[in-house]
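Onboarding guide, step 5: your first structure request.
Type a short instruction followed by the sequence, for example:

Predict the 3D structure of this protein.
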Amino acid sequence: MLARAAVAGNGGPRYDGPVRVADFDFPLPAHLVANEPANPRDSARLLVLDRATGAVEHCVFRDLVRFLAPGDLLVLNDTRVRPARLRGVRPGGGACECLLLRLDDGRGEAFVKPSKKLRGGHELAMEGGAITVALEEALGGGRWRVQLRARGGDVAAELERCGRAPLPPYIARDGREDPAVDRERYQTVYARVPGAVAAPTAGLHFTPELLARIAALGVELATVTLHVGEGTFAPVRAEQVEQHRMHSEAYELPETTAAAVETARARGGRVIAVGTTSARTLETCARPGRTVAAGAGESSLFLYPGRPGVVVDALLTNFHLPQSTLLMLVAAFAGRERVLAAYAEAVARGYRFFSFGDAMLIA
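The system replies with structure tokens like these:
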């Protein structure tokens, strides 16, 4: 067990004055960006940071049980990634790719690349003609309002059959893509509610066997749902963190999870968020007494140094992009200097970064 941080609220450090985006930069060699997931899932490396002392320990993810205790509550994001990426051809020939962002009864929005020379009214034949994407209106930046038709008539069923995992663009496949493998590995083993266009990646390391070991220890498991959107990876273009406006994502926090948080508080257990998405959902629903209110809605909560959360006691997360809102959330929880020092050690030791990378427990 790690020492408890003897600081206010959930342990988030206090900051005064503006916070600069440049303060969250760090050197990251390109070869440390993971292109493939760990196999098996729980063989990824795990860096454990004690935020009370700054001490760091290096483990394997399946060792997570060593840092949990009976009475703790582990909160998982059960969103399910939609197979939202399609490949096909443009009118007149030439390859193209669509990333479906929102879809309701066959209509929605998508990023299309390349978008040059495309016009409203053009139709794209995707996945061998199984799905036709009709471009209705250009929204700027390669984004289009679209309508989908399926050769078999059922758009949702056809997407499930032939859609591809919406892997982030920094994951290189170089012609070695196996769509079935990517769809299985870019999904948590407990994914349940369809709606995300990106995976809650901290959860990718869990196996059913590891979850069973955790439950057998006396750790309670609960879920929230936050549908990760494309804005999660949007760059921060402001110079000061406070000037950034966070994207909005749909969430749901069930009554059972709200009750589990209250019960964990009463028994002295910790609330441990699996991933920044679970943390944001819990903190969006925070109420007095470091508990949460059940509910559903849209969250645009932005946590950063100077604006920490109050509910989460420990955070399990992957290693994030320099100057990203995800790194800022982690720094809000544990302190910028301490987090960047841990990142520097992770880089020096060859940890793998981003979606398919290694993990970090901060407690």
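Each response can be followed by summary notes, for example: The mean pLDDT is 92.
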